[in-house]
Known about the structure:
alpha/beta, 3-stranded antiparallel beta sheet, globular
Amino acid sequence: MTDFTFEVQAKHGMARAGVFHTPHGDLLTPLFAPVGTQGTVKAVTPDQLSGIEASLILANTYHLYLRPGDALVADLGGLHAFMAWERPILTDSGGFQVFSLAKIRKVDEKGVTFQSHIDGSTHRLTPEKSIAIQENLGADIIMAFDECADPYDRAYSELAMQRTHAWADRCLQAKTRPDQALFGIVQGGVFPDLRRQSAERIVALGFPGYAIGGLSVGETKREMHAILEVVTPLLPESKPRYLMGVGSPEDLVNGVLRGVDLFDCVLPTRLARHHAAMTRTGRLNLTNAGFASDPRPIEETCDCYTCQRFTRAYLRHLILSKEILASTLLSIHNLRILVRLMQDLRQAVFAGRVEAFAEDFFAYRQGDAGLEEPAAA
């Protein structure tokens, strides 16, 4: 049985390179996980994900509970078999979606009653229910049920943090499967004292990994960085650190600099569906007329399938023709950009040059004024 140990193989400043052992393979960190909300990364097949060297996929407890149902997924062999994905999977707890998507919700100390955003049906989600659903889904990494709050509302942030702590206790008590690693989540909004209190309380529970939640929800980049600088030093060196819902290239670099190991975000595939290509220097809006006869790939140095075979002109043609292939090719590229960025950061940690890598990255990114911004997502 895999013991979910995390080995820090190299450090440079706060940045780490490590390996986290799971039943479906080792995760080399730092890493970015594509998001497969409903059991699929949008527009991309499992073989294509393997081709870009993705090692971890995130799936969503709330969505899979509502449709097709976690019991059905369990009957069909769990998420790995259901998705035909043999590498590690992480499921979130459903907490964020309950608080962001549900039509009506009522929160009490025991859990949340909410109406489905799909059909208005009423459901009850508690820490115990969240763990039961995630055990049916069978991911390698599962998340404690937490409460999300307005990051600037101190009273609500403190109340939600206290509920998150109590629910973390109950999640640990409810968990039965030894082949899943349950991560605790640190909350507390933009308030450093609450974040310290939350980190100390969650770490005391002894989870095999720790997530930093409630960021990338409207706060400034400076506030995010300040919270990371408060929280990550309080998390154990010997456990992986996961920054939830963050995925722009600059945020990944800044997160690694501040000691984060794991990231996930819908951004690369969402941008792809809105005709935007991510590059190391910014974003290209491929609907721009300037790309109509452009024979270059999206990025000359990119090794993805899309850049190795197709031109900007062809991609623009697919977009204007409303061809589905456009979303697939752009998603492959955008995901590979982030996966490769994390691989490069990992190598920079081993080489002891993360700070130099980051300095070059930000100078290059800020110095190119010729890039187009994407259409609004």
